[in-house]
Structures are given as C-alpha cells and as structure tokens.
Design a protein that fits this description.
five-stranded antiparallel β-sheet, alpha+beta
Amino acid sequence: MPRERSYTLTVRYAETDAQGVVHHANYLIWFEEGRSEFLRQMGMNYSDIERAGFFVVVAHAEINYRAPAFYEDRVTVTTSIEKAHRRLLEFAYRAVNQDGVLLAEGRTVHVVIGKDRRPTSLPEEWLEKLGGLNR
Amino acid sequence: MPRERSYTLTVRYAETDAQGVVHHANYLIWFEEGRSEFLRQMGMNYSDIERAGFFVVVAHAEINYRAPAFYEDRVTVTTSIEKAHRRLLEFAYRAVNQDGVLLAEGRTVHVVIGKDRRPTSLPEEWLEKLGGLNR
Amino acid sequence: MPRERSYTLTVRYAETDAQGVVHHANYLIWFEEGRSEFLRQMGMNYSDIERAGFFVVVAHAEINYRAPAFYEDRVTVTTSIEKAHRRLLEFAYRAVNQDGVLLAEGRTVHVVIGKDRRPTSLPEEWLEKLGGLNR
Amino acid sequence: MPRERSYTLTVRYAETDAQGVVHHANYLIWFEEGRSEFLRQMGMNYSDIERAGFFVVVAHAEINYRAPAFYEDRVTVTTSIEKAHRRLLEFAYRAVNQDGVLLAEGRTVHVVIGKDRRPTSLPEEWLEKLGGLNR
C-alpha cells in the first residue's frame, strides 16, 4: 500500500450547475466510480461482491474542493486504498483536469454489511486482493 | 377519469445546469414524483406495490418543453391517469411555475412486471383504486 | 445523412435505483452526451457554440425503453442527426449493451436560442459541418 | 448563534440506488437546499446573492452517514450557521427521518467569490442578516 488506480471521464453537461461549473455533489459519484474501477483493475467486480451478499456502504465522506471543473473537461480520478480491514475500508481520491490542475481531494470510509444490513466481515480472499492481509 | 392530483416543489440548485435553467432530465424525476404523489393521494403507496412483488416500469416517456424553470421557482406538477389496464398504465403531466407559466407537458406509459422481471397484471383492488375497472 | 457516431460508457452505481436497474431519467443524460460526442467527432464542441452566444435547447424528447441496464454494463450510445435546419435540430439515439441487447431508443428536437433566450439561427458554417445545407 | 432552520422533504425514487437506499451523494444536495431554505427563512434568497454578482462556493464538505433512508421517507434537514465571516461561511446539518432516526450529519465550508471567480467579501448587510457581525 498505497495501491492506486486511475480512470478518466469527460464532464457531462448535466453535471454542471447554474454557476457554470460542475456541481459539488458529482465528485462523490466520480469517487465512487474510482472505487469501482480500482476494484475492477484489482480483479474484483463490485457487482460480484453484492451478488455474494455483501454491501460496502459509505460511513464517512469528506472532500476538499480546490478548483472548478467545466463541461467537456477531461478529469482523471486517482483512487488509492488506505485501509483494508475485515469490517472497514478506507479510500482516498484525487481529481485532476487535462491541464494537471488539482480539482478536488477526498476520502471515504466504508463498512461491510450483509443482506440483513448488519455489519459483517469481507471474505479473506477479497481482503487479500485488496492488499489488506499483507500487513 | 381523468383523475388528477398536484404537488408543488421548489427548484433545487443541483437541478440547474450551465445554461442557468433546470436541466431537462429532471422533469422525468418530477413526473415520477407526480405519480408517487398521485398514488399516495389515492390511498396507495408505490412502496407497498413493490413490497407486494410488483414493479411498475417505464416503457415510454415523452416531454414537450415550453419554458425554462429557474432555481427557487415553485413548480406545480399535475398528474392525471389516462389508462389503467391490468398490464399497462398511462399517466399525463403538466408542470407550471409560480406565475402560471406552462413549463412542460409529458406522458409516460408503464408496464407491470413481477420479481422475475416478466410482465404480469396488477391486482384488481389496486386497479379499482386507480379507477381502471370502472369503465 | 444520416450521419451517426457512437461512444461507450460504463454504468455508474449512482445511475441505478431501488429496482436494481438504471433509472430511466439517465437515458436523457446519456443521449445528451451522445450529442456532445457527435459534435466533437464532427469537429465542433458544444462549449464553443455556447461561448459564441448560442444555446441549443431541448424542445421535445421521447424514449422507448426496451430492456433494463445494470451497474457496470458497458452501454454504447449511437447518435444520428435527423434534421439540421437553421433554427431546429433533430437527433435520434440507440443505446445497446455489451451483449448487443437494445436498451432504449429515443429522439430529441432542439431549437437554437441566443443569450436573450430568444429563437435565432445557427451560423451557416456550423450547419454545414452538421450536413444541414447539403440537401 | 447557532441559528438553525429546518425543512422536510419526501425521498424521491430517483434518489435511491441498487442497494435499495438513498445514494450517499444526495445528502450534499439536501444539505444545499438546507442552506437555501436557511437563507430564505432569514429573509435572503441565494438567487438575489448571485444576481448581485456573488457566488458562495463549496470549499469543503464532510458527512457522517448513520442510518439509511428509503423511498417515501419524510426527512427533516436542520441547518445551522456555524461561522459567518466576510470571506468564509460554515454550515452544519442534521438529517432525521419520520421516526426521529438520525440519518446523517455534515458540515460545509464556503468561500465567497465574484463574477471573476476570485475571492471577495459578502456585503455587510448580508453578513448582519446571517448574524456574522454580532460577535
């Protein structure tokens, strides 16, 4: 750790607001896709995790907004895993535009729950893929 | 028929886009809440319909946009039921702002499916509440 | 005509709803990005159009929903221009998943307005790029 | 201080995700409307602030998620102003459902910028309405 992975998106018109810039709530959606992409690149699919009866839910999120993003910007979101414990995952994110300008940084903490919505533990094979048992 | 019901919303900042007006996709969301409110006012909850194992899915939607809506506008959405058959429902909508200006008109067609996502029929008691067996 | 262009997206978790499928309003957003991508591939940027003082606003939209889309699906949106008149543009769309299943088809009609939000005409150079003066 | 104001919303179907609960990004949108409503109840409209050439932009946001919200829940968002300085505003939020269950708590920090997107100061009359010059 930290392991990190990136993906790039093009800003959608629907993501802008009347200030002419990307609405701040969209960064949480971009970060979430950062996690999805991170898992896919690590050989896991979040779809599979849910099909196996586990939900990874957001317990905490925080974002520092540094510069605005605009329609048609090419934004690269880099996601790293900071903690991978049995019942708790933590990810960090950076979003940078096509000119290398830092747009936002954030962090999310997640807990693992079962179909009954009670806390549970992620299976060890997934934790190992996330690097969580190496330490 | 037509039976109609109204509700009023305040335009959210997040619903605007860089043109300074409400993004056109939000009208589908407002119309959906028009259906929810229509059902509630008819003594049904869409939550109950889903808990009973029925999903009412959108098969067709169309909207004519007449005038822009702005942040903090008070928009009244009026929903009427146009068809209530066992396997098909049709609703119509009008959205009007605080000055009585028509913003948009639309229509959606819905089919009823079960948990297996195959077409099925709504129970008669619900169709009766919707006025569908009176004719 | 018809000229058509495609782009592919990965379904975001935030685009799903409690039915477990993509919420129907998102197709309007995907189609809008289909238009953006169409223009970019034709050598125009909608950002440039707005900077020049023209807004292309949606006057009519319609969608037929054929099959559900799921989180992590790879969806290809194909956009074609159906009409390119001075004051009116019409586009058609098809969204297909990674297995070739047709998810939705739609059509939007647009009018051109100026900064004063009154109808105006697109400059001829843009209409030519869109193929609108060839006929 | 703290001055606080509340408003109540009904959860929209479009706000849910495939976990069957409200997607976590929506809380930022609900909190934003909490700010809007706070300002309206204090005799200010954020529309007026923007028309006067000031934008209040989000510099930091954080949320702790405590319990899930569901479609048709009645959620009360209570907003309080924590800091009202010339160039910086801070708000805190609590979202509670119809049964009094705490769903989420959050905090946002804002800076004031002008039309040129550079930092500026809010006019004193608005700061006074916000209670910021009383201390």
